Amino acid sequence: MNETADKAPIDFWFDFSSPYGYLLAEKIDDVAARHGRKVRWHPILLGVIFQATGSRPPADGSSARAKYVYRDFHRSARHMGIPYNPPSRFPLPTQNAARAYYWLHGQDCALARQFAHAVYRAFFVDDLDISSPDTVLDIAGKLGVDRETLAAALQSPEIKARLKDECEQALATGVFGSPHVIIDGEHFFGADRLPQIEHWLESGGF
Amino acid sequence: MNETADKAPIDFWFDFSSPYGYLLAEKIDDVAARHGRKVRWHPILLGVIFQATGSRPPADGSSARAKYVYRDFHRSARHMGIPYNPPSRFPLPTQNAARAYYWLHGQDCALARQFAHAVYRAFFVDDLDISSPDTVLDIAGKLGVDRETLAAALQSPEIKARLKDECEQALATGVFGSPHVIIDGEHFFGADRLPQIEHWLESGGF
Predict the structure, then answer these.
(1) ipTM above 0.90, yes or no
(2) Kind of enzyme, top EC level (chains A, B) (predicted)?
């Protein structure tokens, strides 16, 4: 365990529709905290990232790879001890959830973190349609957020611009998928890189 | 540790030009042996697999993803404690190495395994051009294999057909990349699935 008041925060880029993003979201704060680090969460839109980079989602089409990936989502969750129910609608657009996150973050960082976890669990445990503004408002409402205020915020040009900026910053930084973690300039892609992230934090690079 | 004389062997599909295949090759036999399993090695040609499935190699082009993947090859090797020197020519065609493997396997299974390790290390440690028949014959020669006999075998229709059959069997089984491991019908893709493979063998499925 290091005393690390001065250590830079870890950046965690993800899309709310990314199963591997959900899995890493359930672990990253605890792993970072064990090494005296904070995590900055950045929801982004994978559609924007894929369009700009020419990348494809892991579970694209009905190929052998796609069949494998759907199975691996579930198996990886069991391996990591995380509840997971394959959503009946997948993937989903996530701009409402991401915008709500950034607005909440401007009000209360800890609340935004609770909201992010709640959105992921709503999608990957409770099979809710997180693309719907109503669902997003319901999730925030349960955390004590005023529904009308948030509904208005989701339509504000500032919040729309903030999400657009985050996606552009992700691309400029070399983010090409979800989850994508950056520690002191070192990039780690995928929930399966968690052991390497822990190794890196423990050893200060290897 | 299980007493498992009856347990089915594990199938390990790989291309000799695959860095993650090399990393898993250095570990898979020991992990399997700890759970009373043998491993059947199947070198195949990723070019054939990619053409048939429409998949792409992980380090394709000069994108942010490709740059990441080159870095991750090396970092994953360090993480796993395996020597790795990025080859100066990459990727390389591997039909000569794969054909030599299958011919040797017909003579002596243990020798074929030694040869496979030697080919991978020649490429990923000593930076040799394993696409060249001469290099392949040199590697086998050091293991006591008669050079002329193997040179003739590499041109035999039987050995060419064997490699073609293995690639077709891979596709029919749902193999879409390298390394690809199948345990009792369960598929594991990538060297980073080694912890899940161990978990699976230990628990008999999870």
Answers:
(1) yes
(2) isomerase
